[in-house]
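Lab manual, section 2.4: Encoding a predicted structure.

Procedure: take the sequence of the chain (257 residues), apply the prediction step described in section 2.3, and record the output as structure tokens. A sample record is shown.
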Amino acid sequence: MIRFTALIAALPRDPNALPVYLQTISEADRTACLALLSGQRPKRIASLATLTQWAAEQAGIPDWLLAAAIEASGDRAETAALILPPPTGAPPSLAETLHALTTPITAHATLIALWARLPADARLILNRLATGTFRATLPVEKPAPSPTPRTLCAVMILVQPAVSEITVALWHDGGPVPIARLALTLPDAADILAWARSHTTARFGPAAQVTPELVFEIAFDGTTPNRRRKSGVELLNPRLLRFLPGAAADTLDTLDT
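Recorded output:
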């Protein structure tokens, strides 16, 4: 539930958040996430007014203070999430939370039990689910799974020495098109950065553009469309495998390939 809450917060600004999340969670949470983001919400188990009153009782908040908090916030679900005491138990997973909401012993007991295990931001998502006010931020587009890791050869075009990151590209229409930014964690890192210092052609803030000569083998788990990228695709879980010092940059894999 904690990670799903972080996903909902990240979706409006990070198009990569969903595919990364789907690749790193359990099958049960993946199914629950896809159901929620495609509009399949659990049935409401309490009204906003009732839920907020239960939260106030649990927190020992008098009615006049609750009314002031609601007026200041303008959002009953948020007010209920914020006034409750800090969590004391291990947080439930998304799948566990949905199961509790769809098969409650009683709505009151279910919410009190879940509130006690969640921080305020996750409680807010829970409150919206419990009151039927949760809305998916983005339509879901499930990336095609890949049975085994794939590999490609790409050329380095940018270096950020301060954070030891490089950007690699594939050829398309006669020029290099960026395909991934990767941590430079190879044993050859020092030599690669030294080479980059003497082959810099331009600077863009902390990034240095270098001549497209050094070739690397990249592994990734699949692709998903991304219109914001020049390449039109996003690599899932890309990572550097090795530096290929003898490879010719003009024989790389192409973006079309």
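Check your result against the sample. Residues 150-251 form a domain with the OB fold (Dihydrolipoamide Acetyltransferase, E2P) fold (CATH 2.40.50.140).
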